[in-house]
Give the backbone structure.
Amino acid sequence: MKTLKFLIFIGIISFGFYSFTTLQDEWKVPDKYVNMKNPTNPKEDLAIGKSLYGKHCQSCHGKEGYGDGPKAAEMKGDLGDFSSEEYQNQSDGALFYKTSFGRDDMPEFTKKMPDDEDRWLIVNYMRTLAE
């Protein structure tokens, strides 16, 4: 009987942990942003996007966008891999939303970078990190 109670307890704990991590992984982006068109030319001003990425993103996401920057170990969630197909398949608008508003360990950048164009330039640069 003790074994059965222990197994039920472990099952409940496991289910709770699984549910919590599943909810954290899902990042809902409003349709307004998913369908938003990038107003910048992705081929222009990549040097500015790279510079902004280096200043604001590289410490966590790493130079190549693998999620292996010097501050990555301090973060709780998955920092993503910007070179992955899964990441690159997101719309520009979804990436703009995530870059702008953040979530959990990802800070909101609308105050640090109030100019939308700067955040779009980062999105354009992150596109160059595809494998």
Summary: Helices lie at 2-25, 31-34, 46-56, 58-61, 85-88, 92-101, 116-127. The chain has seven helices and no strands.
